[in-house]
Amino acid sequence: MLSVIVCSVDKEAYSALSENIALTIGDIQYEMIRINNETNNYNITTAYNMGIDRATFSNLLFVHEDVIFHTARWGEILLKIFADENIGLMGIAGTKIKTKMPSAWWDCPEAFKAINIIQHKDQAKKRRFTGFNEEKETDVVAIDGVFMAMKKNDFIRFNTKIKGYHNYDLNISFEHFQKEKRIVVTKQILLEHLSPGKLDESWIRSSIKLHELYNCGPHLVGEVNSSLFKKLEIDNGVKCIHHLLRFGLRRKAFYWWGQILKLRPSTKTHWRILKMFVAR
C-alpha cells in the first residue's frame, strides 16, 4: 500500500505520470496525491507535508512529475524493501558522504555515490549506474529528491523553514540520519528524469539555511581517510563561497571562509578565496 505524492505545476505532466504509474506500479493498492502548485506557490517542504497529512497509507513516495518509470512492478519491489523495519528512507541516487560545509549531495568523489537513473541533460539522455556491488540496496547518508520513498513517521516531517524548491531531499535525509533510520539507494528501480536540476540563488540560500538549522555533520557510511575528508570539506567550502559571491551574499561568504580557516588555518586555498572576493 503506497501513497504517491506529487508537488505538481503542470497538469499534462501529472496526467502522463499518473498513466505511467498505473501501467508499471504492479499489483498493489496505491493512491495518487496531487498537491496543486500551479498557482498556490507553496514551498515544496510545505507541499510535501500537506501530502503526508492527506496520505491514507503508511508508505509514502515523493516523486517529480517529469519522470518515466521503466521497471515493471516497481511498487511491489518498493514494498518488499520496506519490509525491513530498519529502513526509513529510500532513493535511486545518493551519497555515502556529506560534508558539514554547504554542498549538494553529489559534491563528492564518484566512489561515494550510488546512482541508478536515466538523466536528461543538454538535449541528451544518459544512464547513470554506479556505487553497487552484489547488493540490491546500499546504505547512504543522503538521497536525491527526484524519488524519495519513506515510511510515515509522526516524528519525521519536512522543515518548513526551508523555503523554495531546493534542499528538501537533504532536509529529509538529515531527519532520518539523526533518528538513526537506515537510508538506502536501490538498484532495483529504474526511472527516467526528463529535466536536470539547477543551482540558482534560491538553491544557495536554502542550502545555507539548511546547514544553519541542522548544524550537523559530517555524515558518512563506513570509514574514510581523514586527510581526504578534510580536503573534501575545504573543496566544498570553496564552492559554497563561490556560489555566495556569485549572488552578492558576501557576509555569508565571509562566515564560511571562517569555517575553512578553522579547518586549515594555513593553506594556499585562502589566497584563492581572497582573489574570489577581490574579483567580486
Automatic annotation (TrEMBL):
A GO term for molecular function? transferase activity
Q: Which organism is it from?
A: Salinimicrobium catena
Q: Which UniProt keywords apply?
A: Transferase
Give yes or no: UniProt keyword Transferase: yes
Q: Name one Pfam family in it.
A: Glyco_tranf_2_5
The record ties this protein, via InterPro entries, to: Nucleotide-diphossugar_trans, StrF_dom
Q: What is this protein called?
A: Glycosyltransferase like family protein
The Streptomycin biosynthesis protein StrF domain, residue ranges: 3-188
